[in-house]
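re: ur question from yesterday

yeah so i grabbed the chain u mentioned. its 281 aa long if i counted rite. heres the sequnce exactly as i have it in my notes:
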Amino acid sequence: MWKSIRVSLLLLGVSTSLINCGFNDTQEQVELIKNSVEKQVSKRKELVWDKDNTRMVLIPAGYFEMGSRNNISNEKPVHKVEVSAFYMDVHEVTVGQFQKFASETGYRYDLWDNVARYSPEVNYPMIYLSWKDALAYAEWAGKRLPTEAEWEYAARGGLIGKKYIWGDDLFQARDYANCHGIDGKDKWPQCAPVGSFTPNGYGLYDMAGNAWEWTSDWYDERYYRISPAKDPFGPVDGKYKVLRGGSWSYLPINLRVAKRECHDPLGSSSGGLRCVSPPKD
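ran it thru and got these C-alpha cells back, copy pasting raw so excuse formatting
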C-alpha cells in the first residue's frame, strides 16, 4: 500500500542565548540546551500512500492539553489527552484527488460547479463535501477520518498551550494560513492551492484556514467533561459532526487551534478533509 518511505530529521528552533538567563553556572546552562535539543529534534517518518498518491507523515504518540482557557463553553475544560501514533495526510484532499475517486468508483457527486467557483484547479482543496462524501473518500483510499482529538493534537504540531498552529502572534497568521482577505503570503481571495503556506511543526500544511476539515466525531458541547483520557472517539451519536481548522472566509483571529465547529453532516460549503491511518511495521 505504501509507495515509498522517507525518513528526515526535523530540527525545531532552539535558542542558545546564555545571557541573563538566571542560571547558577555554565554547566546548568549547557545541560538545559542539551536537553532542549534532544527533546525538539525528532525523526519525521513520511510515506506516499498508493491509492490516492498522497504524502503522509507519522504523528508520534504523546500527550497534549486539549481545549482552551478562552471561556468558550464547548472548549472547556482543558484536559490532558493521550494520543496513539498515526499517519496523517500532509495536505488537504484536493479537487483532483476527489475527481479520481468519483471517476473510479462512480460515486455520485453533482456540486462541481460550486466547487470550481472557489477551488478552480485540481491542486486546490476539495470543498462542498458532506460528511458522507468525506467518509466515502477515506474508505476508498483505505484510510479513515481523524478523530477530533487526533486532529487537534496534530494541528498543534508539538507546540504547548498556544492559540494558533504557529504560536500566539496573530500577525504571523498569513504565513501559515489562507484566511479572509488578501495580505502577505495570502494572495488568494478564496481557496488557495494546497501547500501554499508554511507547515506546522509536524510538517502539515493548511491546518488553519483554506478548507474546514471533517472529523469522525459526533458533536457534543459538553463532551470534554466526560472525554476518555486516551484516544477519545467522541460521542456515540448526535445530530451534528465536528469540523476543524477554519476556512478561507475566516478572519485570522478565528483560526484558533482549539476552535470547534459543528455542522449538519449533510454538507458544508467549505467542508473538506484529510485522512489518517494507523502506523504499520
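noticed a couple things. The first strand starts at residue 2 and ends at 11. also The first helix runs from residue 26 to 40.
anyway ttyl
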